[in-house]
Every structure is written in structure tokens, then in C-alpha cells.
């Protein structure tokens, strides 16, 4: 059946049937025909085109076990997330649907679209009075059920599961990460408190490269936290904060412990899983702080030379003390010719 033939069929039904007879037929079409639902009940006139018609038939024919990759502005969200969620609820009001996106704000936008449709679409309420509230904002709350993009929405159900009918969640918020808001974090513009980071800031990743902050979940009140003590610092973190941890091993050779620790693997642990004691013949360590990949700048003095002078230099003269020929080689690479003076001692 072509789109033109489908529309002819819809018009014929709407013209020849009235009242309860029309309601029964439209209920069946809503449950089994997503194109009818989208264009006639949800009033998406813009979706009445051959592309959307073909895609609705494609999705209906084999709806599950696919990762749908469509170009932007090609109705994937309208057909699958919007109309698809509504159709599934019309089929089974006991269903629970989770809308996931990169962050929760994006997911809530899709939930809000569905929520507004349930509030204002009188056709849906007429077709499925056993499912949809007449005045959702008032009726749902009357029975103690949530009705918001933040908390989710619940239609009329026979059961009473703890999950709402539709909920919205973000992938990055679902990751259990939480540090004290005054934890210092190095950005490309200097140090900032963790709680002061905002979208547009740049911090450094595990390879020392700048990465942009694109979202901040805000302050998490009443979070279960732990004080994590390292050999050089202390950090307050959530009990379920995720840590990258290196597991190392130091073999024994002829009864003696080898000088070097060998890297075994990098694992992800929650704060509460961090070991209080080292494993037998092994040790967990935090990965080494990476060398920062900073942009090159013209400076009055090479940082290596400055470091030599600050570490072993003479404050009143352009001199430093060393017994290491390697530092002299680096000195020359920086464009300087060292003048050696023997220690009088």
C-alpha cells in the first residue's frame, strides 16, 4: 500500500464511521499503524510524506534489535521516540519506557514532548480513556503520582511499579562520579574548584590533552562520601565515584623482591572498592599524572634552564651546581654554552 492509498483508506474510515464505531476502528489503527498515529492522531502534518511513510513501515516490520543511524532532521526521534513510545503505551499501559540521551537535559526534552501531548491531545484521551488522564497535571498528582519532565510521567495503571511510565535519563549523569565541590581541578586557565567548573571550561584528560567541559550535574546533596587518603594528598569523593587504578606486581627472584614493579592491568573501581591493604606481592596505584600537552609559546628563558637554576642555582648569579653531564647536554640544546668552573672544595 502506498502513502496515497493509506491516506485514502484513512479518509474513508473517518468519513463513513462516527461515534463508538469510529473510536473502535481508530484505536486499532493507533495500535497497529504508526503512520496513522503520527499524522492523524498526533496531528504531525509535516510527517505526511513518502520518506516518513516508508520509515514507519520499516520500523513496524522489525522494531527491535537495531541501532538506528539516520541523518539529522530525518524524523527518527519523531517516529521512534515520540510516536513509538505513545504507541507502546497504547498497547500496554503497564509498560515502563526509559528515554536515554547523552545528558538528562536532552532526554527530558523528548519526555516533555510526550508529556505535553498527553496533556493537550483530546483525541488520545477520547480513544483511550482507561489510559490517559483527563487533566494529567491535576489527576496524576491527586493519586500521588509524578507528572513532570524531571520526575517522569505515569498514566493510569492497574499495577503499582516504582518506575514511572516514561522516565528521562542522561548517560553522563548515570555515571557514578562525585567529588567535593572544593576539590582543585587544573584547567587551561589555571586552578578551579570542582564545583565551579562550567560548560566551556577546558580540563586535562588522562593523556594530558585539553578536553571541554560540556555539562555540570550540579551539587549532589546528602551524597554518601568517603575521605580517600593517598601518600601525598586527601580527597573527599562519593562512595560510588569511579577511579582508574593500576594493578602492579613485583616478582620475587631467588627469594628477593625485584627492584621494579610490573604493570598488570588497569581496572575501574568504586571508592568503596579501593583496597585498604596491598594484595599479596602486588600493589594498586593511581595512574601517573600525565605530562600536559600545552601549546608552544615564546618565553624569555627556556623552562628547563629555569628549572635548573631554581633547583640548584645561585640566587645572586647566573650559575647553577651540577655533577651531571646530562644536564649540560640539555643546557647546550637550549642554545647556551656553559662555562665550567671547578668546585674549590
Would you mind describing this structure in some detail?
- This protein has eleven helices and 15 strands.
- α3 packs across α5 and α5 crosses α6.
- Strands 14-11-15 form a three-stranded antiparallel β-sheet, with no helix packed on it.
- With 345 residues, it is an alpha+beta fold.
- 17% of the residues are buried.
- β9 and β10 form a beta hairpin.
- The longest helix has 17 residues.
Task: Give the SSE map.
Elements lengths: L2 H14 L2 H14 L1 H8 L8 H12 L14 H16 L5 E5 L2 H17 L1 H6 L8 H7 L4 E2 L3 E2 L12 E5 H4 L9 E4 L2 E4 L8 E3 L5 E3 L12 E5 L4 E5 L3 E8 L2 E2 L2 E2 L4 E9 L11 E4 L17 H10 L12 H9 L12
Parallel strand pairs: 1-4
Antiparallel strand pairs: 2-3, 5-6, 7-8, 9-10, 11-14, 11-15, 12-13
Helix pairs in contact: 2-3, 3-5, 5-6
Largest sheet at a glance?
3 strands, antiparallel
Number of helices: 11
Q: Give the helix proportion (percent range).
A: 25-40%
> What is the overall pLDDT average?
86
- Give the strand line-up of the largest sheet: 14-11-15
N- to C-terminal separation? 101 Å
Q: Give the low-pLDDT segments.
A: none
Quaternary state reads single chain
What order do the helices and strands follow? HHHHHEHHHEEEHEEEEEEEEEEEHH
Principal-axes shape call:
elongated
Q: How does the helix and strand content classify structurally?
A: alpha+beta
Amino acid at each position: 500500500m502506498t502513502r496515497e492509498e493509506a491516506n485514502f483508506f484513512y479518509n474513508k474510515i473517518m468519513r463513513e464511521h462516527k461515534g463508538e464505531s469510529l473510536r473502535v476502528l481508530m484505536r486499532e489503527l493507533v495500535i497497529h499503524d504508526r503512520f496513522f498515529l503520527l499524522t492523524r492522531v498526533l496531528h504531525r502534518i509535516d510527517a505526511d510524506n513518502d520518506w516518513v511513510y516508508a520509515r514507519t513501515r520499516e520500523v513496524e516490520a522489525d522494531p527491535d534489535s537495531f541501532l538506528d543511524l539516520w541523518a539529522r532532521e530525518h524524523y527518527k526521534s519523531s517516529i521512534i521516540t515520540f510516536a513509538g513510545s505513545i504507541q507502546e503505551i497504547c498497547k500496554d499501559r503497564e509498560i515502563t519506557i526509559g528515554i536515554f540521551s547523552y545528558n538528562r537535559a536532552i532526554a527530558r526534552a523528548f519526555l516533555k514532548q510526550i508529556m505535553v501531548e498527553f496533556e493537550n491531545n483530546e483525541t488520545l484521551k477520547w480513544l483511550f480513556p482507561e489510559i490517559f488522564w483527563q487533566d494529567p497535571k491535576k489527576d496524576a498528582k491527586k493519586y500521588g503520582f509524578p507528572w513532570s519532565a524531571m520526575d517522569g510521567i505515569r498514566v493510569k495503571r492497574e499495577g503499582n511499579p516504582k518506575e514511572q511510565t516514561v522516565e528521562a535519563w542522561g548517560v553522563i549523569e548515570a555515571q557514578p562520579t562525585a567529588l567535593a565541590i572544593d576539590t582543585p581541578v587544573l584547567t587551561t586557565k589555571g586552578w578551579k574548584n570542582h564545583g565551579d567548573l562550567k560548560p566551556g571550561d577546558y580540563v586535562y584528560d588522562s593523556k594530558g590533552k585539553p578536553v571541554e567541559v560540556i555539562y555540570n550535574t550540579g551539587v549532589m546533596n546528602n551524597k554518601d562520601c568517603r575521605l580517600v587518603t593517598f601518600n601525598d594528598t586527601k580527597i573527599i569523593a562519593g562512595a560510588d565515584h569511579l577511579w582508574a587504578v593500576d594493578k602492579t606486581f613485583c616478582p620475587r627472584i631467588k627469594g628477593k623482591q625485584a627492584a621494579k614493579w610490573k604493570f598488570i592491568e588497569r581496572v575501574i573501581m568504586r571508592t568503596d572498592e579501593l583496597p585498604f591493604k596491598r594484595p599479596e606481592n602486588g600493589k594498586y596505584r593511581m595512574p601517573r599524572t600525565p605530562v600536559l600537552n600545552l601549546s608552544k609559546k615564546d618565553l624569555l628563558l627556556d623552562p628547563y634552564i629555569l628549572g635548573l637554576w631554581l633547583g640548584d642555582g645561585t640566587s645572586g648569579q647566573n650559575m647553577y651546581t651540577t655533577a651531571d653531564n646530562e644536564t649540560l647536554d640539555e643546557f647546550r640544546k637550549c642554545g647556551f654554552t656553559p662555562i665550567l668552573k671547578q668546585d674549590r672544595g
